[in-house]
Amino acid sequence: MRIKLFHANDIDCQLSEIKSSLGNSFDVVVDKVLIANKEHIITVYLDGFIDRDLMNRDIIKPLKESDFDGNIELRTNCICKRVQNISQFADEILTGQMGVWFRNIYFLFDIKKWEKRPVQTPDAENVTRGPKEGFTEDLITNTVLIRRKLRTSQLILEQIKIGRKTKTHIALGYINNVASQDVVKQIKTKLKSINVDGITESGKIEQYLENKPFASVSGIGMTQKPDIVVTRLLDGKVIILCDGTPHVLTIPEFFIDNFKTAEDHYHRIFFGTFLRLMRVIGFLLSVFLPGVAVAITTYNREMLPVSYLETIIGSVANTPFPQAVEILFLIVMLELLKESGTRLPKTIGSAVSIVGALIVGDAAVRAGIVSAPSVMIVALTAVSSFVIPNLNEFTTIFRLLFLALGAFLGLLGIGIGLVLMIAQLASINSFGETILKIESRNGMINSIIRLSLKKQAHQSVNRESDRIQKIEQHSYDERETYN
Amino acid sequence: MMREKHTIRLILVLISFFALSTTFFGCVGGVEPRNIAMTNSALYDLDENGIYHVILEIIDPSNSGDGRGAQDTANKRTSIIRNGEGITLTQAVTSVADKVDKTLFGTHNRVRFITERMAKNENAMNEFIDFVIRNDEFDERPWLFIINHTEIIKLFNTSVGLHSLLGEYVDGVIRTRKNNSGYGVYVETLKYIIDSMDDGVEAVLGRITLVDSQKPNQDENYEINFDGLAAFKNNKFVGYLDQNAALAYNIINGYLKKTRLTIEEENFSVAVELSNTSTEIKTHVKDGNLTIDVDIKGKIKITELLKSAKIKNTTNIKFDIEGAFEKALNSIIEKSLLTARDGINSDIYGFGRRIKIIGSAEFNRILAYQNYYSLLEFNRMNIDLQVTNLGDFDMFFN
Known about the structure:
The structure holds two protein chains of two kinds.
Chain A: H1 8-21, E1 28-34, E2 40-46, H2 52-64, H3 72-75, E3 80-83, H4 86-94, E4 98-102, E5 105-109, H5 139-149, E6 155-162, E7 168-175, H6 181-192, H7 202-209, E8 221-223, H8 226-234, E9 238-242, E10 248-251, H9 269-298, H10 306-316, H11 323-343, H12 346-366, H13 372-385, H14 392-426, E11 429-430, E12 433-434, H15 441-448, H16 453-482
Helix pairs in contact in A: 5-8, 9-13, 9-14, 11-12, 11-13, 11-14
Chain B: H1 2-28, E1 36-46, E2 52-60, E3 78-86, H2 89-99, E4 103-105, E5 111-115, H3 116-119, H4 122-134, E6 143-147, H5 152-155, H6 166-180, E7 187-188, H7 189-197, E8 204-207, E9 209-212, E10 222-225, E11 229-232, E12 237-241, H8 243-252, E13 258-264, E14 268-286, E15 289-307, H9 317-344, H10 351-358, H11 360-367, E16 377-389
Parallel strand pairs in B: 1-4, 1-5, 5-6, 6-8, 15-16
Antiparallel strand pairs in B: 1-2, 2-3, 6-7, 8-11, 9-10, 11-12, 13-14, 14-15
Helix pairs in contact in B: 8-9, 10-11
């Protein structure tokens, strides 16, 4: 066989071509390496993306040995892949692979290694019982976390790239024959239709997937915990993992799902039920308490016990603003504190919270700007809102709406707001299913009261057999139509 | 074009919302808590010149919360007394409101007092009922009592026990006495109104009298006595009945929960707790004559017993006690019924209501009689009491 030897000038030319295809950035390492037989290869990689030791030991070193016969795929100790052209070669380099150009052929080696956050407990989803691990920013780590809990070949993880420039890896996951194929198809279609420069977080995908951008909730759930994702998959839901973020989307997400956590099933029935009831109460308090409190004290005082009303009257006697304004002021202050506490470093953030809650709150009461009952109402509201972090956006907006309605229209306004809220929720669809959907009467009971695991397993089996029956019926119908 | 349509629609929605808000805002009329003057008790009077007088006890909230929410226990809660007058109750109340720089809030009022001289005026009482029902700022729940007008000044200078406010004190005492004593009558305003308007029953009110407290404290010269009742006929005060009549009223109407009775006989002296009373009343109309049968049952718990040495057989003493109390209660109830029938001629026990049960035609015929209650005859009075508990110490001392 005759081997064409490349002249040094050709190699330099190729080197500059590769460099320019990758943008001539400083972190793009393009080196000319002398190997056996006085030949040259060009190694290409992004600095910090690959395992250099592995590269030197398993790729470069074997090529430098005198008995190297020119067959890179056989000689190197890593999985090797050929690509046809330089643009494909450059794209793969940008995903973190190491590239070798030799005798006008592009080789790719998967020896990725970069710094990444270890698996940690997610801050927003702490649990007292159950797995503590949470997703990381690395897609593969996240799929590993799911696979470790769900060892079935029916778990399908499909990869899609989104973003003209970011080329973000998205993984679409579902359990075959459990998830609705219709929903999977719809999600795939929508994902493929996303035509943007970049996706950096799953929140953006969520907004591209939802039908009503101005709706209060999207009908798409979010979690950072693998055990919750597995539970959702077993419930027939579809998940979307996005490289670079630990937040995993679950679709479809019904409103009632926000009150359920995987942790409920780790506790005994009574405590699990108690926790769920606490979440429902927390939700109601966080949305309605400020509005109802203002409505009652301003319009329907007779509903309050005499001594409590007396205390309120005594407390607000010397404050300058109406109670609705006091509460609005405190809610805004609370949101500012939450925002600053989130953005600042942990140590300073907690200090800001303490300063805000204790010093500013107490000082505001002492200065006579706000009354103590208003502080108590907003504090209780804030504590309640943390019970369901997934509905934080929803509760914050509706809290303000109900406050305004309660202040202007009293309990009548609260009633009007409640009707509007339910109507708005009922109008939201998540991939063909209304988010207020409850599967059955037992499903509704199970949403509020945690049924025993045996009973839930029985329901699950029934659901699966129903689904199989439907699929068989559908296939039969199709065959009949064909015939 | 579509964009314009959307904008017009949005403007219409906003205008509608604004109009709705302002409309309902005016309808429901919210008042900030700081602008409320909460009344705790109210007294209504009508003088000889036909002028209504209203006295309101208004809670002073300055000691209720110190701006930090917690009630300051060191500062005793206080109230202010404001009075007003007018040719109508509304005018009188308005003249009180004019003296207070806040909106009167009467829904949490605890107690109402009306004077005896006002209660004697049928028109005044009708106006009172109309005022209470029609006015949404005043509730129908407060206790209603009658008081002699000469004692008005004393009333707001009485001992209020462990409480700070008169209305609160009266409310507290009644809630306790309702469960422990049958010697007073405790009527809410609404009950009075219903009885006044209902056929076959006459309304009653609780009566309060003021007695010297015999205390060195000059600020609290008097104490309130709640025994007895005030009887009405056709919404007009007709007379007072004593505490025994009040006990009979409570037993016959089934309001008695528990009360204490004491009897001193030749052979023993005994104090008991009477409870679980039930009354069955049967009415008969035959040949135009109305007859009533009354059967009363109850349970007795002995709380104190001193037995004479003459009694040797202690096993029969229970029966003796039961017999003695049956006799005593029979006498009390019969006397009360006859006093109501012959003395004031007012059907406060509601026998007419029971006649109505027989049939409307019969009832209408009976109503045609003037003073039908005076025609009633008590055919049979049967009282059956049972000693069910000898107390924690179940032996007898000689």
